[in-house]
Design brief:
The chain is globular. By secondary structure, the protein is mainly alpha-helical.
Length: 529
């Protein structure tokens, strides 16, 4: 069944004259017409699909390698910090700081409630920011140093005489500060993608660079964690604090490289997109949210992203417990490195596959492979270490696909919104996407923490070997590593089957947008004369 769905997805994305493709083209046409009626624009241009001259006239400028490199570097620090939180924070709070799994997971959930407020707010304000640094870079500059400092404090353990409730309050406050500063640097950074290029395939390549650096930062954090475990084996408190401070400092520097390497291109992109203040700029956050909900392809994208990210975060959170408590290995770092290390080169393989099969076809292949691997982890037995590492390496293709596809779909959806409304709202769209990323992280950690608490998981004492776990806790760990992520991935595969924006439809949207801009330029010239 999964293979049939994947094959159908690939077939529909390669052959755009299918019934779904025709319906999607009608959908794009209707969106453009609704905008024309709303804005009293006359002279509907003929809907163009294959004119070589038209395609050549609007061909977006290609970005050079150094620009892509600089842009990708901007996600290295946030990738490092987010990955360490995903893999290690729950284990740190329970086994080092001394919190129960229930309270530890609650910290993440409360932090994400605040994220539900600050993510759309930062996106809303970022869209309206005007400064000599542009509307995105100024946020990255302001938030970079507080971002690094708060991450270091996240891994500090207060004195041994402090009660569990006071520790809970400390980590809750610091977590809220960290997540706020994370938003101020990462959300405006992500919203730069449409301003750098309008090309369908170039955006996939750009996101491949971004995610390659994100995974590089993630892997570097895991490597540093393994190194600190060897250098400071007898003091987990100092081990994690030194790791947090080191990664906090490292995470700041790539943000400056990104700003320096993309500044001129972002300024040019903002001017090309004709960003200006008008009546729609005064919409409230509630009104912006309604606009997002009315964008049908965007709902598919957030569904695809949420299911993929939730599967990824549940897996990342449970891996330390699965490897150490079920597989009975000493450390989980090498298993995590196997998954993410192999995913880096596969990001560029995914980009090449996407150019052949489209984004839906790539996602279909990646998810089928990942579903087969993820579901098999439930049946893995202690002692099958070689098979564990083999499955970890094989899962990297699905992980790379989940990283690349949803983020490269998002700029296409933003252009559909522009076709429909005449406005560009990158910050709003990216803010809700980033919010979903963080909610996936929080929900994954919360579900794992609450499941372990309910199943009677016994927290380890710092400096001692992990205690034996009851059968109920071991079963909960196996369910969390296998069936739960598999269900999420299957839902995502179904959603991508119905996703309407193929390469062909996106090209038609761009042609419409450029026709509108040419007409607006002519009207302006006529008024001037």
């Amino acid at each position: 069944m999964l293979n049939a769905i994947a094959n159908r997805v690939i077939h529909n994305d390669k052959h755009h004259t299918t019934r779904n493709g025709l319906l999607d083209r009608d959908f794009a046409q209707n969106e453009h017409k609704s905008w024309k009626i709303k804005n009293n624009v006359c002279g509907e241009p003929k809907f163009m699909t294959s004119s070589p001259r038209s395609s050549e006239a609007i061909a977006p400028k290609r970005l050079n390698f150094l620009t892509k490199l600089a842009f990708g570097a901007g996600d290295m620090g946030t990738g490092m910090t987010a990955n360490l939180v995903a893999f290690s924070f729950l284990a740190f709070l329970t086994n080092v700081a001394g919190l129960s799994p229930g309270k530890a997971s609650l910290i993440l959930v409360i932090g994400k409630i605040w994220d539900a407020i600050n993510d759309p707010l930062v996106g809303f304000l970022s869209d309206r920011t005007r400064s000599r640094w542009g509307r995105r870079h100024i946020w990255m500059l302001m938030g970079s140093i507080p971002f690094g400092i708060s991450f270091g404090l996240l891994w500090f353990v207060p004195g041994s005489g402090i009660s569990e409730n006071l520790k809970f309050a400390y980590y809750l406050v610091v977590s809220i500060i960290f997540f706020t500063t994370y938003t101020t640097v990462n959300l405006p950074y992500a919203a730069m993608t449409p301003e750098l290029t309008q090309d369908y395939d170039e955006r996939t390549t750009l996101n491949s660079f971004r995610l390659a650096f994100s995974l590089t930062g993630a892997i570097l954090g895991l490597v540093l964690g393994a190194v600190m475990a060897q250098l400071i084996p007898d003091d987990p408190r100092q081990q994690f604090f030194v790791l947090g401070v080191t990664c906090g400092v490292i995470s700041i520097l790539p943000l400056y490289l990104c700003i320096w390497g993309t500044r001129s291109h972002v300024k040019t992109g903002e001017a090309a997109l004709q960003i200006e203040d008008d009546s729609d700029a005064n919409l409230t956050v509630k009104q912006q949210f309604k606009i997002l909900l009315n964008n049908r392809p965007y709902l598919f994208v957030i569904g695809i992203y949420l299911t993929s990210w939730l599967a990824l975060q549940i897996t990342a959170t449970i891996i330390p417990f699965f490897v150490v408590n079920w597989m009975q290995l000493d450390s989980f770092f090498l298993v995590a490195l196997a998954v993410q290390g192999a995913a880096i080169p596969l990001l560029f393989v995914c980009s090449a596959i996407s150019q052949k099969l489209g984004k839906r076809g790539l996602y279909g292949l990646g998810m089928v492979a990942w579903i087969l691997i993820q579901s098999s982890l439930f049946f893995l037995q202690p002692g099958q270490t070689t098979l564990l590492y083999a499955l970890a390496l094989a899962a990297s293709f699905g992980v790379a696909t989940a990283y690349v596809v949803p983020w490269s779909m998002l700029p296409d959806v933003i252009e559909l919104d522009e076709l429909r409304t005449g406005q560009r709202r990158e910050g709003v769209f990216y803010s809700f996407m980033t919010l979903l990323q963080k909610l996936g992280l929080a929900l994954g950690i919360f579900l794992v923490g609450q499941a372990l608490e309910f199943a009677g998981f016994v927290s380890a004492t710092p400096g001692e070997a992990p205690p034996p776990q009851p059968e109920s806790a071991l079963l909960a760990i196996r369910i969390a590593i296998g069936p739960l992520p598999t269900i999420c991935l299957i839902i995502g595969l179904v959603l991508v089957y119905f996703y309407p924006l193929t390469r062909h439809v996106h090209a038609d949207i761009l042609l419409k947008l450029n026709e509108r801009k040419r007409q607006a330029a002519l009207d302006k010239e006529q008024e001037a004369n």
